[in-house]
Design goal:
single chain, alpha+beta, about 55% helix, about 400 residues
């Protein structure tokens, strides 16, 4: 999961220590200290040049590395440098534990930026804070063990504890969080595919549906937004629809009316991953990375129903829509067209498009419409609320 990248992003901070261990074993302590300090400074300069910002932990780690390396040189005693991973580990552990469990949880925005998923839902926040706090306690224990090795045990024991043992423990910890999640997602995907494959009357085999499930949206990159619609990151479309963290991403929807209370609606293709074979608004789709809302909506209108010009677009609503597999920031628009308008729907996306009267909508069965269309018809005044009967 992308959440585990948060933990992995901290591990390079310990690379100077590993370089020191390797170089020390081959060329001696002075060369090891020089290599460790040089790598620490190099990492800091690289992050500053690439991201044009100062990473707080990288800065503190680099300052501590240089200070303890200089102290070791001045006193001709490598024990001070060997204490460095214990001290920096203690600082990191304290930042993690207090930052995610303290009253202000100031570490959460940092975690969201590291994960690249933008604002996270409560379930993902709870999982991520537990994961990071647990790693903090692991680092704290490792720091105490490293300090003991630096002060009282042999150089060989310290080399193993400060280097290899840290990576071994980190790898085991990440696997312990990742494997159960991957197993659950695999089982959920199998169950969803089986449900799609067994849908009666679709005219498709179970294998065909699984193929559609696997390829729909592959290769697309979607923007990740905050509840106000500001872009805070980006993510592959399959990740946005995989459950788990459910990064918030924008979608646009267009209701087309003839001006007399009637609406053109599309019947979603039975090969669609979400709500196949149900009636929905005329146009709906994801906003691609780099697109604004109107450009995205006009593109979707051309691609889905062959409508070259939907005319003047009126924004009528915005809300967050969450399902078992995704979390969307929905932007709803309304446009009026004459009844003489013609459509050329993409049969891979749309089985049919026709004009529905208000009476037809009021008499429609609940399961004939998509859940999102029903939500909009019953809650947005501009759509002249027509409540389908059960």
């Amino acid at each position: 999961m992308r959440q585990n990248n948060v933990l992995l992003s901290f591990l390079p901070g310990f690379a100077p220590i590993l370089v020191y261990i390797a170089v020390d074993s081959l060329f001696g302590e002075t060369a090891g200290l020089a290599a460790g300090v040089a790598l620490g400074l190099g990492e800091f300069i690289f992050i500053l040049a690439r991201e044009r910002r100062v990473d707080a932990f990288s800065l503190a780690d680099t300052v501590l590395l240089v200070a303890m390396g200089a102290l070791s040189w001045a006193l001709s005693n490598p024990v001070y440098f060997r204490l460095k991973p214990a001290v920096s580990g203690f600082v990191l552990a304290l930042m993690m534990i207090v930052g995610v469990l303290g009253p202000h949880r100031f570490f959460l925005p940092y975690l969201e930026r590291k994960s690249g998923l933008g604002e996270l839902p409560r379930a993902a926040v709870k999982r991520m804070t537990a994961m990071v706090a647990g790693f903090g306690f692991l680092v704290l224990a490792h720091s105490a063990l490293t300090a003991a090795a630096a002060l009282w045990w042999s150089a060989a024991v310290w080399n193993f504890i400060a280097g290899a043992l840290f990576w071994i423990l980190s790898f085991i910890y990440i696997l312990a969080w990742t494997i159960p999640s991957l197993v659950m997602r695999f089982r959920a995907g199998r169950a969803r595919q089986a449900g799609m494959g067994s849908t009666a009357g679709t005219g498709r085999t179970a294998g065909t549906d699984r193929t559609a499930d696997a390829v729909e949206g592959s290769g697309e990159i979607l923007p990740v937004v905050d509840p106000e619609g500001r872009v805070v990151g980006k993510a592959p479309r399959p990740l946005c629809h995989a459950g788990g963290a459910k990064p918030l991403h924008p979608v646009v929807r267009l209701w087309l009316t003839d001006g007399s209370g009637n609406f053109w609606m599309q019947k979603r293709s039975r090969g669609k991953l979400v709500q196949p074979g149900k009636w929905d608004c005329a146009v709906g789709g994801h906003v691609a990375a780099g697109e604004n809302l109107e450009v995205s909506l006009r593109r979707e209108a051309r691609e889905e129903i062959g409508l070259g010009d939907p005319g003047s677009l009126t924004f009528i609503a915005k809300f967050i829509w969450e399902t078992a597999i995704e979390r969307e920031l929905v932007f709803v628009f309304l446009a009026t067209l004459p009844r003489t308008v013609s459509f050329s729907p993409d049969r891979a996306e749309v089985d049919e498009i026709r004009l529905w009267s208000g009476a037809e909508l009021a008499g429609a069965k609940l399961d004939a419409l998509t859940e999102l269309a029903l939500r909009e018809l019953t809650s947005i005044p501009a759509l002249s609320p027509q409540v389908p009967s059960a």
